[in-house]
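This part of the workshop introduces the protein records we will be handling. A record pairs a protein's sequence with a compact description of its fold. As an example, a complete record with its sequence and its structure tokens follows.

_____
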Amino acid sequence: MNRELQNKLFEKYPNQFKNLKYIECGDGWYEIVSRCCEVIQNYIDYSAKNGKVIDFYWSQIKEKFGFLRAYNYGADDYVRGVVTMAETMSGCVCEYSGNKGKLRNRKIKDDEVVLAWMKVLSDEEAKIEGYLVE
């Protein structure tokens, strides 16, 4: 994720990102990560008002096997559910553009279809990257 988008998240949610220096995914997933952080922060704030302290923070946010993966510390069942939903949503959002996407793992190379790194890409981005569009 580009530095400008990362910094927006780091500034808005400093406690969540206290141990994270960078986010290792494309800009297209910014909204997913941002909404995930927002829902978690609202829950942390609500819990604090009711006497429950949640020390939650991200340890790593990245792309893995084509999907968003978000590793963290201090999550309870509710927060784990929010994170799982964000990871699942990444499977239908282009990692580069944020448009509708799908998981792709085949490229066209020398007029042959070959296996490639798994990525969730829109049709347009898939064509740019040389992935097979079906």
